[in-house]
Amino acid sequence: MNFVATGIGAGLVSALLTAVIVKATPLAAVLYLLAPIPVLIVSLGWDHRSGLIAALVGGIAIALILSPLSGLGFAVITALPAWWLSYLALLGRPGPDGTMEWYPVGRLLAWIAGTAALTIMAAGIISTGGDYGAFDQNARTVAGAFVDTQFTTSGPNALEAETREELVRIFARLTPFLSAQGFTTVLALYLWAAARIVQASKRLPRPWAPVPDLVMPRSAGLVLIGALVIASFDGFIGALGMALSGAFLMAFALQGLAAIHDRTRGKSGRSFILSAMYVLIFVTQGILMVALALFGIADTVFGLRRRFGTRPNPPPTLST
């Protein structure tokens, strides 16, 4: 019954971190962002069933503290994605030689992207009660605030009303795309940080593969192509396509980063190269991530590191 107690404790801690958002302070926002970490830690270090119990207990606690809708949102948006990714991370099967074959980190990254996109859509649907008109209006409100902070809206150099409206329309359409991009990065960092914490406590069942070794399967490229196609549709289907497109492009960009980490290992000037790359990403406000995404896609489709590098072929991996 140890996993029950740890699940209850993690659920209450995660619920508390979520509930403090009502304080509307910077510290409360930071604590709110950390809410999935307890669920990840108990799911990885004890049992994935602990994560399910944490989702249930935390959802009930939030429903009692805030509202039933908030409790549902906690379970669907915060706890269940953390549990699902932990469950996948601990999948394994005995290999022909008797050693355990663990779920590949490349496939795990693809699932992170898919989970991020679906979570963003679930959050939008729950908050609007499934009304796409309200969903679109929320996106336009966010887009309008963004445009007003980035462009001059008053004075002699102000944007014309028609130009501003067109920019708001474009950014509103891109809101699921950009939100899923950011959440993919956050989920990847959460899972990595939780795995490192559990590994330090010697409770992680699997040896965590070096991040530079990750390569997503070619099926991730097919998902991206399909997402780009359905992104042209209207309604929630189009929004889902935008979310999946943003999430998988970010995942490929993270793979591109991993590939550069991989190719520079053991080389002189590695620290300078990596530092310069991250500075450029920050200075260009993520524009460099587009090039990294293209590099990641090419790495998956053509196996660049296996063809032109010295790394051996990857070991057999789980097919699901």
TrEMBL record:
Signal peptide: none
Name under which the protein is recorded: Putative membrane protein (DUF2232)
Keyword Lipid biosynthesis: no
Keyword Transmembrane tagged: yes
InterPro entries: DUF2232
Alphabetized UniProt keyword annotations: Membrane, Transmembrane, Transmembrane helix
Alphabetical list of Pfam families matching this protein: DUF2232
Sequence intervals crossing the membrane: 53-85, 105-126, 174-195, 215-233, 240-260, 272-298
Superkingdom, taxonomy of origin: Bacteria
